[in-house]
Amino acid sequence: MELSMEKRNFYKADLRDFEFLLWEQFPKFAEILAHPRYSKCSDADISTILQRGQTFAYQHLGPSYQSSDEQGCQLIDGSVQLPREYPELWQRFQQDWGDLANDDRDDASPLPPMVMQMLLEMFMGAHPSFMTYGGFCLPSATLLERYGSALQQQLFKHKLATSQWTSCLALTEPQAGSDVSLVKTRGSRQEDGTYLLQGEKYLISAGMHDLTDNTVYFVLGRGEQSGDGTFGLSCFIVPKYWVEEDGTQGEFNHVECVALADKMGFKGCANTHLTFGKNGPCRAYLMGERENVGLLQFLTLMNQARISTGVYALGMASSAYLNALHYSSTRLQGKRFQESFNPRADRVNIIEHADVQRMLLEMKSKVEGCRALIARLTLSESYLSIYQQDVDKEQECTHHQGLMNLLTPVVKAYISDQAWRICELAIQTCGGQGYLKHTGIEQYARDIKVLSIWEGTNFIQSQDLIRDKLGMGNQSKLYRIYQQQVDATLARASDFPALKPLVEQLTLSYQHLDQCLQQVGQWVKSKQLERIPTFSTRILHLMGDVTIGWLLLDGAMAATSALTQADKKHSDAFYRGKLHSAQYFILNELPRSAFTLAVVSNDDASHTMASEQWQDLIAGVNG
Amino acid sequence: MELSMEKRNFYKADLRDFEFLLWEQFPKFAEILAHPRYSKCSDADISTILQRGQTFAYQHLGPSYQSSDEQGCQLIDGSVQLPREYPELWQRFQQDWGDLANDDRDDASPLPPMVMQMLLEMFMGAHPSFMTYGGFCLPSATLLERYGSALQQQLFKHKLATSQWTSCLALTEPQAGSDVSLVKTRGSRQEDGTYLLQGEKYLISAGMHDLTDNTVYFVLGRGEQSGDGTFGLSCFIVPKYWVEEDGTQGEFNHVECVALADKMGFKGCANTHLTFGKNGPCRAYLMGERENVGLLQFLTLMNQARISTGVYALGMASSAYLNALHYSSTRLQGKRFQESFNPRADRVNIIEHADVQRMLLEMKSKVEGCRALIARLTLSESYLSIYQQDVDKEQECTHHQGLMNLLTPVVKAYISDQAWRICELAIQTCGGQGYLKHTGIEQYARDIKVLSIWEGTNFIQSQDLIRDKLGMGNQSKLYRIYQQQVDATLARASDFPALKPLVEQLTLSYQHLDQCLQQVGQWVKSKQLERIPTFSTRILHLMGDVTIGWLLLDGAMAATSALTQADKKHSDAFYRGKLHSAQYFILNELPRSAFTLAVVSNDDASHTMASEQWQDLIAGVNG
Fold it and tell me: pTM value?
């Protein structure tokens, strides 16, 4: 296919917002950096590496974003052909950034997770499809470290941590999507302790490529003796080319791609239908040599994948917003509202129009709020990185791990849903241009849509949040941790009289959230459990709104303080912009909490319709 | 380009809902049908023609929907190549449906507008891109009838009314999008009374094709002596091949396509950049031989185009919903929530899951509500079709014209915005499958996105609603007409005790709308006019919600009555489904009105940010 697009970078990053979060909104980040683990990493190093990341995103990743969407991936004679820029881009990426989080390096210290995610926001925002190929390298190295046998670690960990090989996660099967308990792939144990695998996997992202010499598949399957359901699942390590115990690379291991799915977006990411052991033996190592604990082991990967989903969403949505902002400041159209009837009034850039400002402020506040949410989660992850070896810090670890666990489904589901909305606004801001490919924004919308589905649909996230994290009520330990955080921010806010209206609205909405969770607890007591899944999506969105409101208020306090200082890091306009984000979101979006509470509280019984009624409807339409 | 898609019809229509609206929810439709104008059109004829329309949509339009998206349009040596199915499809369409609304036919009476729009919903939902080519035939025939000279009517009206030629609307220029006052195309008057046109038009839908022997462009431009601004605009009639006064077709008239824009969707609709008179003389007739009244003349076309936009949105969104419904009733995944922990519980189709039901009910209620809205508008249009020649019916005409005028921007903007949301839910309902092309839903989302932009952005619609239709307050004549309608429904509803909770919520939300409009009136009095555009999008959405709530309640009353009758047209399940739609929407969506009112009423000043702040932000990002 001929390429009609010029190679232009559409991606825009907001480095100042990163700096603001690291050094001003979350000053505790300095505590982390002071720890010996990060002794080789100064403030200046971090600024430099973020700058370098931006340059890489603008110069290398961004320019092939649109071209890879045009080319897509093709299956030719069983081999998957990626967009033509990928091999060279991979070489460069692997060389410049491949071992960034490899803890074994001698020359440099690892980066705190908070900084890592900021880099990833730029990379994933600049070229999301490309980033899927290496996306599981680090999480799977962590998985091996946690659960792999000594041999497995020795064979695979370093290769993955340095991106010499890539990793691929293979859970879904045609009959087993959201319901992984239906997985049928089987492994039969051989005398040498390895397994022979038989099965197929479906909708596997970045499931086949030749970017690296080998790919290591982490496959969810069952041992021969294992039962049905989730408790019979195991995690198999399946290299595309077998790896002998001495590390030498052996024969092709019969992992094959039989089809690619054509989809709305993310077209540079091959969506593969894979077979294991269909045309010859497919050997596997059993993770940690333990059967039936696969789902637990996969959780490590899944949690990281859920956070990454939020980061993908944020990276793209932020760039969509910044592109729309740029367009609106250069497009001359219409007069100021107050001068509508003045024939001699000048045309103004559309950024002057009230409705464009409404859209820009909604985008700005949500992008910044979502970025603060990921920063807050990765601040806790950063604490864990320095505390987890320290027996004195058990309580802190419990706190930070708890907050991470609680926020993970919110990051995944709330940010991916908001990102779609942000793209809608970014397109609308640009009018007809927003709908055209050459503006670059419509692709973000198409790419983002999968994020509410993959790595567990957003409803599954809401179930995880309400059932597993909030204990179906407002009494869970994790919710206490969350409350401590929000309460502390609200308490500090009393020192900022100018923020009083925001504090009042946040306090109110935070109460609404609590009342919704109380209602959930009531349903448990009154055995109306079926109400919970009816409202869990709405409650997750409410929790997302309150969390964003909390963190934007927190940012507004930091910005207020910065404005009083003589020696400011950034311009006054920047800090006033942070105040604006908090004010817009809290006064224009957060009041939605009363609506959610009203709907959750009412005794309406119209939430489900009987199967027969739906069937009648379907029959009426098809007939 | 090779076609990888099978030719499958994805489109699904809901004929029962049409029948319900025509014969049960709006029994006054019978009054219209009893008028001599429709003497040749019986109830049975209408059912037959709707059935025939569905068959045509399923068998001819639907099957090339996806293929036309894959092929798109190409500009080859100045000629626009459409998807290969179009010429044959056009022949068939023109033959079967081309003169449906041609009043001059002898053999059959015209169809009432209410029925016409139902047919168009199916055609536009089944293949929106294709339908753009003939979309302006009837409205421009009406335009000629209203404003054209005798000669112009004679030359063009019949050809357009019978779809022998097509019509194309050309307003936008690169520098004049939402702001048509910036249009630069110029016509200079010749001695023979025709004009020579010079100019270019941009983002013109279906702007060039060879489906018909000729295309008539209705071009917004200026006479040589005309001033700047909107009052200097004229409407030029520009045939692609000149048409002599005796009706013979003359030479090529130098309307040329210089570029096609590549876009997110609607790919079978050529998005053209046209030049007029660039490489040779381009002659034009001046509409009605009157300069400087072009914008007024175009309003006829624009109003029809705005209603059509709502119909496109409804047709596609309805099919997206019905496809998702069908999928959810066949996809086995997961157990019932109450049996989550029962290892022997059966898997159920996902339609049994509460969150899927939430999405289906949101889609169902919105689709049915939007369809009722278009039906209500076209009921008034149908009244006008029988009353407008009747001097005794002046008052009725004022009433119906007023309601149409008021509802038109709501139909355009509210339905197009809701349609995007419905597609989001339809994709989500189908999970990973929803993101794949072979499921057919993602294309609806991509196609629908333009509808919030074209024919006046949705913000422009909200300005029209609040400024021109509602008179910036709650005192306008059109609003009185609207209130009469809603009040009458609420009064009748007191006979239906089972609907009491719905009546209460609708009454409350209707008050909220009124309070928002009062607030708008207050801003006018206190000279805070700039607040109006800040909130007009939100107020339009609120008015849409209330209107949908009103019409769904109205439908619920009709369904309740039907259920008590021995001789029902449809199944009990169908009528109970109508009740469910009303209940779900009114109790789960309509309470949002309190949120809108709260935001409109608060005295927050964060709605705009100063230009310097935005500029600082842009500089910070690009730097």
Answer: 0.97
